[in-house]
Amino acid sequence: MTKIKILLIEDNHLLREGIAAMLNGQ
Hints:
Blueprint: H1 2-25
């Protein structure tokens, strides 16, 4: 369970960075 939660948290972090990069790129 903990490993899955950590993976989800990491995925959310990457998604936020990707969205921020897209917004900054515009």
